[in-house]
Amino acid sequence: MCEVGLFPYVSQLEQVPDLEECDISHAGLLLGGKGQLSLTQLSSTNWLFLDPHAERRTTSWKATPALCWLRPKLIQEMGGVDPAYQSPITRLMDLAYRVLVAGGRVCHEPAWLTNQETPVLSANLPLVDQFVFLQRHLGSWATTYATFWSYFSIKDKQHIWKNFWLARQLVKQYAAPFTQTSPTLHLVGEKKKQTIERISAIIPTINRYEYLPQAIDSLLRSTPAVNEIIVVDQTPIEHRQMAIYNPYSSEKVRVFFLDEAGQSVARNTAIQAAKGEWCLLFEDDTVAWDDMLAQHVHVLEYSGAHASTGVSLAPWKNVEYIPQRIRHYHIADVLATGNALVKKSVLQDVHGLDRAFDRGSGADHDLGVRLYLAGYEIVFNYKAIETHYKAPSGGMRTYGAWWRHRSTFWSPFPPPTQVYTIQRYYVRSFWLPLYLLYFLKAMKQHNTIELVWLWLSAPWKLVRSLRLVKKLKEKSAFLEQIEEVV
Fold first, then answer.
1. Where do the structural domains in the chain lie, given as residue ranges?
2. Residue among 194, 143, 204 nearest 171 (CA)
3. Which of 35, 219, 340, 342 could be a cystine partner for 309, CB 3.0 to 4.6 Å?
4. What is the CATH class of 199-395?
């Protein structure tokens, strides 16, 4: 164990962190780390770049040397510190981020501080370090984009471009440390940390009776068995096919009919009704692989985490289609509400899914952000796999919700729910860059003619989206409800 820090700010010495459970333990969010390297948020909506609740035990890579514990061998395993950074603080944060991505557990622990008067950094980290971090972890395009927008917020324009070019030189001069997953990382250990016994599977559905039975049957075949399956059927009354549920026991498959349709209200209804301590979030046009649930249970029992999120593959794909770089357990930057096992009390603590996303995309991302900010651990589980058939109609397709980066001829863009997310989690000065980021990413989803129209109509589409966001906020009292959480 290596102890680095200002010892006056260490709690009682007998409370030294157990590095059998955590690879890096620190109090960085209270000791100068909060708000650092914020330019990452200009070109990425990855929630790992947000600052979680500093007063809670959370996952955060923003460690500072003021108070940090880690195993000396860990530095070697991660390929050493990156010499391209000018500040030792940035070098530590970069190391912690690489540990997190590689599958380690990096914990911000405010309990190590003895008093409320804690030191903070007198200034931000060197600008060149921000550009180096962007280059290392998000690439050249993201670095250029963030640099362009920082031009409008930093007075010394020459200073910006000088550091931008210096960062490019440093990245070329120093090779990135070789980072690989290691069996010594502690996210999923060898000892069972909790036992999962009662599971309630949740399936919201709208007019997908052609797919629904195979989704239910795949869960009934699961080992371990789910205790119950809750189907929330929101199909209009005149189109409901009641006979579809006749083959199933009413105790094993409980069906709730809702006249008010929406993905969030449907899942929230099921979460409240669930008898199990854990909720398996599933979809009506998917089929669980035989060991999907067993893989979720294994990861949660041996990690002690609060959620396990899995993988969805098209019917013609196998595990080889899962990118090699993510084919290991790690703290997730995504959450799939169609394939995730989450503790019920955790879902209730963050007030479930936001009703603003009832008929729009992004409910899963929003839920993941709130879980992360509140200090709950979500493990990406590459072994928990389902087949996703992507039904061409029904479900969210009923409301025209398809992809976040695709727009139809008349639809607002970015999708109002995505604008809603940006306004909730990012400072106002970042809003416009993130709006435009959606237009840039849309280039992969449209042909040339569609792109020409998208850009010609961009001001009108954006204004429409901004107006609809106001209605979403009026509809949902959710922002006020979660203030205590995040």
1. 2-173, 199-395, 404-481
2. 143
3. 340
4. alpha beta
